[in-house]
Amino acid sequence: MTSRTHRRPITAAAFAAVLALVLSACGGGDDGDAEAGDGTVSVLVVWGGEELASFEAMVAPFTEETGIDVEIESTRDLNAVLTTRLAGGNPPDVAGLPGPGAMAEFARAGDLQPLPQEVLDVLAAEYNEGVVADATVDDELVGIFVKSSVKGQIWYNPAAFDAAGYEVPEDWDALDSLVEEAAAAGTPPWGITLESGASSGWPATDWIEDFVLRQSGPDVYDAWVDGELAWTSDEIRQAWESFGEWATDPAYVSGGPDTVLTSPFGNGGDCLFSDPPGCLMHHQASFITTFFEDNNPGVAEAGVSYDFFPMPQIDFDGVTYAGDLFGMFNDTPQAQALMEYLVTAEAQQIWVERGGALSSNQSVPLEAYPDDSSRRSAELLVGAEVLRFDGSDLMPAEMNDAFWGAVLEYVQNPDGLDGILANLDEVQESAYEG
User: Fold this and answer.
1) pLDDT tens, 270-305?
2) Structural domain harbouring 25
3) Predicted confidence (pLDDT) per residue in 72-83, tens digit
4) Which segment of 7-16, 193-202, 338-347 scores lowest on mean pLDDT?
5) 29 pLDDT above the threshold of 70
6) Are residues 238 and 181 in the same domain?
7) For residue 434, is pLDDT > 80?
């Protein structure tokens, strides 16, 4: 595996482009040269641990080459801190965004600054059009994806499968049969955990989104995300019930519903590595491999003790994905330069090589990924015929927050689904106004 401390220097061309942006923004000439290496850019992020370390590694060459200091602040409750800072008139220069839905709200409120043409030029040359569209609001580019992830992956321990005589399912019927067989043999088929601080519940929304896309198709998915299909509709109810059939039954989920509700999401796959296995499979995005290895050192090894297969199609096929968005709240030369640097293949490859992230930049070579599972994840992201962004992240913030809370309530009280969905219909009416 590639060393996690490896750094690639900014290429001459990439550095020249970043420096040119700083110089032009500072006014050019001798005075511009003096200012180009001065100053700082403040960045608010949600990451901690290995993710924060990877971002620090990603921006280190930028500081080394430009002299611009990147001051990073981390918080678990990004939306609350960012909203408070905006209300107080002291936003960070650059910040992570809770999702495209929140991004659109910030942009339309005039809080987000449009990104310079130099950023759009890089995106147009090296990114898929759909990725650019997901970062655009009312025809203005206001965001970038610092890293991406594929969702709807089902992780398993190949050795545990072999020992039990199980085969990787190739279609939905085979997966359903495997779930029933494992439960009957006394091994909970699933590891599911939903605790994530102020964002608790989001892993369950990924499940439901995958069911909506695969059971009812992309048109239904889009209508639901856009607020045009009721939560009480048959299609959405079916997705909730499919998730609940497994997540609320102790025979199907490791530790039962209490563990689902109270255990950190990053520990949801730890049951794959216990002896005997505490679960058979774990549904989570591609970034979970970092948690596997950090939580289970010397045990979790890509391609040996963990691997994945895509969640099979049911009546429709498709792939969901997500990405960590950044926006610029103060239009300074330093902030512009950082935003342009972060989308380059050189910057993106630094995090890719360290593991735990995929890049939407098509110029990042597959060979840069540290293992076969991450390379196959990247191929899924690039090659999907039906690709949809994480639905809850696309929803308005009010709707997204209600969705998170509702799934927690559902796991705790599955018999209350009628009321839960009816309440979400009420939120939908207000969240999508205007």
Assistant:
1) 999 999 999 999 999 998 988 999 999 999 998 899
2) 12-147+324-370
3) 999 988 989 999
4) 7-16
5) no
6) yes
7) no
Contact 18, 337 (CB under 8 A): yes
Assess whether pLDDT exceeds 70 at residue 8: no
Same domain, 178 and 248: yes
What's the rounded mean pLDDT across residues 404-433?
97
- Alpha-carbon distances, residue 294 vs 291, 301, 348, 354 (angstroms): 5, 11, 22, 13
Tokens of 342: 């972060």
Mean pLDDT computed over 307-334: 95
Provide, rounded to the nearest whole percent, the portion of the chain with pLDDT above 90: 78
Q: Are residues 208 and 328 in the same domain?
A: no
CA distance 269 to 93: 36
pLDDT score of 33 more than 50: no
Instruction: Clarify whether residues 120 and 227 are in a common domain.
Output: no
Dmax (CA) of the chain: 75
pTM of the model: 0.80
**Token pair listed for 302:** 């890509």
Q: What is the CATH number of the domain that holds 57?
A: 3.40.190.10
